Amino acid sequence: MSGTQRGTGTPGPMLAQPLRPPTPGRALAHIGLFLLGALVAVAGTLVQAAWFPGGLLLALAGAVGVFLGGAYATRSRGGAMAPAAGWIVTVILLTTSRPEGDFLFGAGGGSYLFLFGGMALAVICATLGAGRQPRLGSARLGK
């Protein structure tokens, strides 16, 4: 049947479609979103400890804004996953202490809330982000 639904001439399910490499613009957008997620992680790391309850909420709200903004900007869940990956990688790298004894995360509860709360919010935003919608004219699928 080569990718069409039984004699209708319309493409079959998305999972049955062949994979194509991303366009250069989309690849560049995802790289930019990855770096933006890393930048928000560094800023959130500094803000969450400075003003404890408000800074933590501000840092997590900024992370959610980048995750959902990436999803809506690219109209795909990959747009939420790119900044989430940048955020998670950066936060994990910032949790390690340096040989001099310097570190950015304290042992307090706020740091753990930022770390695990941000990871949970990244998963939630990547799951609920703007997924692909069918481009059919009818509101009902299959019509």
The major beta sheet can be summarized as: none
Shape: elongated
| β-strand amount | under 5%
Give the mean pLDDT: 80
What is Rg? 20 Å
How are helices and strands ordered from N to C?
HHHH
The secondary-structure class comes to: mainly alpha
Question: Helix fraction?
Answer: 55-70%
Summary keywords:
143 residues, mainly alpha, 4 helices, elongated
Topology:
Elements: H1 24-50, H2 52-74, H3 78-95, H4 109-128
Quick rundown:
The chain is an all-alpha fold. It has helices spanning 24-50, 52-74, 78-95, 109-128.
Structure explained in plain terms:
With 143 residues, the chain is mostly helical. It has 4 helices and no strands. The protein has helices at residues 24-50, 52-74, 78-95, 109-128. Helix 1 (24-50) packs across helix 3 (78-95), helix 2 packs antiparallel against helix 3 (78-95) and helix 2 (52-74) runs parallel beside helix 4. The longest helix has 27 residues, at 24-50. The model has no long low-confidence stretch (mean pLDDT 80).
